[in-house]
Amino acid sequence: MTPIHSIIPSSQTKNIINKRPIYIPNYIPDPYYVRILDTTLRDGEQSPGAAMTPQEKLDIARQLAKLGVDVIEAGFPCSSPEEFKAVKMIAEQVGNDVGDDGYVPVIVGVARCNEKDIETAWEAVKHAMRPKISTFIATSPIHMEYKLGKSKEEVLEIACKMVKFAKNLGCYDIQFVPEDATRSEKDFLYKILEEIIKAGATSVAIPDTVGITMPWEYAKLISDIKANTPGIENVVLSTHCHNDLGLAVANTLEGARAGARQLEVTINGIGERAGNASSEEVVIALKCKRYEAFDGLYTAINTQHILKTSKMVEKYTGMHLQPHKALVGANAFVHESGIHQDGWLKHKATYEIISPECIGIKRSKGEGYVLGKLSGRAGLRNRLEELGFQLNNDEINSVFLNFKALGDKKKRVTDGDLRALVSNEITHTEPIWKLGDLQVTCGTFGLSTTTVKLITKNGSTHVACSVGQGSVDSALKAINLIVKEPIKLVEYSTTTIKNGANVTTSIVIGRENNNHESTSTPTQENVHPTFSGTAAGTDVVVSSVEAYIAALNKMLGYKE
Ligand SMILES: CC(=O)SCCNC(=O)CCNC(=O)[C@H](O)C(C)(C)COP(=O)(O)OP(=O)(O)OC[C@H]1O[C@@H](n2cnc3c(N)ncnc32)[C@H](O)[C@@H]1OP(=O)(O)O
Ligand SMILES: CC(C)C(=O)C(=O)O
C-alpha cells in the first residue's frame, strides 16, 4: 500500500534551491525552467491605498532578490518623481547586487507606448546590470475604441514604433504587453505580436487584464499564440493574470502548462482591484506538484523566504491578509476540529500538504491547533500534556465534558481555561470564600470604587471597600483587603459572546513570593504555582470577581 504521505516527494518538502539557468533576455536555456517576474512594486502598488515610499520599495526589492525572483518589475517611472526615484534606486542598488547564488535580478520599468514614458523608464533603469523596459498598449476592441480612440492599424504602428524607440535608446531587453489580450481578436493579437517581435521585443506578456478568462480558455490562448504567431519561439512568453473571478493563480498555472515560461505574480496576490496571481501560491503549487501536474517545471525561488517577504509587503502596503489566505494567512497551518487534530497529531501530512517550515514558518509547541467547541479528546489530551498535566482516561473524560460546555460559550478555550478545568478536576476543595454582594461605582469623575461582601464556609461575612483604576481593579483590591493573601494577577481575559449579552472571564493568579526581589512583570513562568478560575455571566465585573474567587479558593486549598 502507498504510504499516505508519499503524495509530497520528500525532495520537494526540503529546501532544495534549483539551479537557475543563465539569463538570456529572449530565451531560457532549460525548457523546464520558469522565470518569476514579481510585479508587487508595480501592479501590487496599484492596490487601492497600497502606495509605498521609495525606501520601502527598495527594502522590498532587496527581499525579493533574496527570495530569488528572476525579474523585479520595480514601478512605473513616469507616474511621479518619487516613483522615478524609487525605480532608479532599485536599479542602481538591487540591480547591481550579486545574490548568494551569483544572480543579479533584472529590473523593469513600465511605460505606456509613448516616447516620454519610455525615455523616463529607461533613465530610471539603465544603470542596472540587467535593465528592461516593459511597454504596453491595449489591443481589445473596447479599449482601442473607448480608451485610446485609435484603430487597429494605429495601435499596431505605435507598438512597433515604440519597441524600436526603446531599442534605439540602448535597451536590449524589451517586453511588449498587448493590454486586455484575453478580450482581443486573436488574429489581431497574432499580427501585433509578430510585428513587435520583428521590431526587437524579447518577451511578451499576455495579460488577462480584467480577470474574465477561465483556466482552460487561458491555456488555449497561450497554445494558440504559440501555434499561430510567426517568430514567437524567439521570445519568452509570459502570463499576467488578474483575480477578478478568483482565477488568477489557476490561469497562471494553466498558462505555464500551455508553454508560458515567465509568470508575473505579486506577493500576497495584491494588485489592481481584486489583485494578481499570488506569488506564494503559484510557486508552492509548482513545487508540490512539479512532476504530477507540471511535467517537471521548476523555479529558483528560495521558499524559506516566503513568509518574511509576505509579512514585509503586508506591513508596508497596509494590505492585511485574511486569516485563511493560502499558505501565509494566520490560519493556513492551524487545525481547529477534533478529527483533524487527531489525524495531524498522528501524522502531520494527514492534513498538511507541505511543512510550514518550507515557507519559513517556525512553529513551536502548542502552535498548529487551537482548542474550541469542535475539538476532541486527542487535541485536549495533547495540550494538557504540553502544559504538564498527566491525566488518566477517567480524568480526561471528565475534563472533556466541562471543556465542551465551556467551548459552547467561548470562541476559544485558552491555556488558562484548561488549567482552571483541570484544577477543578483534581483539587475538589470546598470553597473557602463565596461572593455575598458587590456594588460598583464608576464614571468619569474620580476613581472607581467597589464594595464587596464575602462569606466564609462557616458563614461569617466580611465587607471591604477599595478604589482602583477601573471597576475590576477596585473589586479585586477590595477582595484582597478581606483575604489578606499576597496574590499576584498573572493573566486576565474576557470574551464577549452573543453580541455582548454574555461574558466569560478567565483569571490566573499566583502567590506573591515576598523573598523574591525581582521587579519583572509576573508571568506564569515566574509565579509558581498558578491557579485559574473561570466564570460566565452578563456583567464583566461580577464574572471577574467570581473567576478571581474561584482561583483564590484553589490557591488556598492547595497543598505543596
Ligand atoms: C492594466 C494596467 O495596469 S496599465 C498600468 C496602470 N498604471 C498606471 O496608470 C500608472 C500610474 N498612472 C499615472 O501616474 C498617470 O495615469 C500617468 C502619469 C501615467 C498619466 O497621467 P495623465 O497624462 O494625466 O493621463 P491619464 O492617466 O488621465 O489618462 C491616460 C492617458 O494615457 C493614454 N493611454 C493609456 N494607455 C496607453 C498606452 N498603453 N499607450 C499610450 N497611451 C496610453 C490614454 O488614452 C489617456 O490619454 P488621453 O489623455 O489622451 O485620453
Ligand atoms: C500593463 C499590463 C501588464 C497590466 O498590468 C495588465 O494588463 O493587467
Describe what this molecule looks like in 3D.
This protein is an alpha/beta fold and 560 residues long. It has three domains: 48-317, Alpha-Beta Barrel (TIM Barrel), CATH 3.20.20; 338-426, no CATH class; 429-557, Double Stranded RNA Binding Domain (2-Layer Sandwich), CATH 3.30.160.270. The protein contains 17 helices and 14 strands. It has helices at residues 10-13, 54-67, 81-92, 115-125, 141-148, 152-168, 186-199, 215-228, 248-257, 279-288, 306-317, 338-346, 377-386, 393-409, 415-427, 471-483, 540-557; strands spanning 35-38, 71-75, 106-112, 131-138, 174-179, 203-208, 236-241, 262-265, 433-441, 448-456, 461-468, 487-497, 502-511, 530-537. The protein has an eight-stranded parallel barrel, surrounded by seven helices. A three-stranded antiparallel beta sheet has the order 9-10-11. The chain starts with 9 loop residues before the first helix and ends with a helix. The model is unreliable at 1-13 and 515-525 (pLDDT under 50). The structure holds acetyl coenzyme *A and 3-methyl-2-oxobutanoic acid. GO terms for molecular function: 2-isopropylmalate synthase activity. This is 2-isopropylmalate synthase. Pathway: Amino-acid biosynthesis; L-leucine biosynthesis; L-leucine from 3-methyl-2-oxobutanoate: step 1/4.
